[in-house]
Each structure stands twice: as structure tokens, then as C-alpha cells.
Design brief:
This protein is mainly beta and 150 residues long. Helix content is 9%, strand content 53%. It has one helix spanning 79-91; strands spanning 7-14, 18-23, 27-32, 40-41, 49-58, 61-73, 93-99, 104-107, 115-122, 129-140, 145-147. The strands form 2 sheets. Strands 2-3-11-8-7-1-4 form a 7-stranded mixed beta sheet. The chain is globular, with a radius of gyration of 15 Å. The chain starts with 6 loop residues before the first strand and ends with a strand. The model has no long low-confidence stretch (mean pLDDT 90).
Length: 150
């Protein structure tokens, strides 16, 4: 996976709305039970966003450390979005992102959803608030899978 060109877009969905998470070794299909929209756009700062699935080998085999770290700029963050993201970070979620090669990939799985934190991030001046830092991670048995639209 090549993120050198950056992340173009990130979307998030709560794991409790996922009814189907079906995957092969490289591709995944995700759908909801009510056929509603699963994904919420994240108002990311492209230069302050990273999505990775780093492989780690051990005696039991290879596991992948999925992580998504992004700065959500203050002008685009609403109180309802903050409440939603805090819930997702605590209860588990998936991230769907588009990389510089225009590939859609998924971080997290139904068995190992992303969990994390949402914290205020200071700006350049002491009294400034740049936005909110969203940090999500999970250990998974699969790399970042390519997302399939059906």
C-alpha cells in the first residue's frame, strides 16, 4: 500500500450498523442491515492524515496494525459530529479511505474494529484550537482490504 501521495478522503461507519463484512484475501464488501447509508464523510486535513496497516511478524504469523490518525479542522467540526465520533471511537468503527492512487480501502474488520480517541488539538497560538485529533487503531489478521462497491 502506497500512501506517499497522501489520503484524499476518509469516511467512517459504526461497527454496530454493519450487517455484512465479507472478504477475500484482498477485497471486502461491507453493507448495512437497513440498506441505509453507512458512511459519514470526515472533514480531514489531507496533510495531517495517515491511514496504515503495518505488518508485524511473530511466532504465530503476521498481524497488521491498522491505524488512522487525522486532524479534523475546527471550522468543519460540529457538536453533533463530535458526539458521533466519540461514540464510534469508543464502541468500534471502520474507516474507508481513498488514497492518492484513487484506491478505496478499509481499515478495521467486523471482528477487530478500530477503537481510539478524539482530542482537542491546539493551534499556533496558545488560545487557538486547530481542531480535533482523531486516533483510531486495531490489530487485525488482514491488511487494509480493497473496498468493493456492489
Amino acid at each position: 500500500m502506497n500512501n506517499i501521495g497522501g489520503i484524499l478522503k476518509c469516511e467512517i461507519c459504526p461497527i454496530d450498523k454493519v450487517s455484512t463484512f465479507s472478504h477475500t484475501e484482498t477485497k471486502v464488501l461491507v453493507s448495512s442491515a437497513d440498506n441505509g447509508s453507512l458512511w459519514i464523510d470526515l472533514p480531514i486535513s489531507r496533510k495531517n492524515t495517515s491511514c496504515t496497516a503495518t505488518p508485524e511478524s511473530n511466532d504465530a504469523g503476521t498481524v497488521y496494525q491498522h491505524s488512522c490518525n487525522t486532524l479534523l479542522p475546527m471550522p468543519f467540526v460540529t457538536p453533533s459530529l463530535l458526539a458521533t465520533l466519540r461514540k464510534y471511537a469508543k464502541c468500534g468503527c471502520l474507516i474507508r479511505y481513498t488514497d492518492a492512487n484513487k484506491q478505496l480501502r478499509i481499515l478495521g474488520t467486523n471482528e477487530y474494529p478500530l477503537l481510539g480517541t478524539l482530542e482537542e488539538s491546539p493551534g499556533n497560538n496558545t488560545s487557538d484550537l486547530a481542531g480535533f485529533q482523531l486516533r483510531l487503531s486495531a490489530t487485525s489478521l488482514t491488511p487494509a482490504l480493497e473496498y468493493i462497491e456492489v
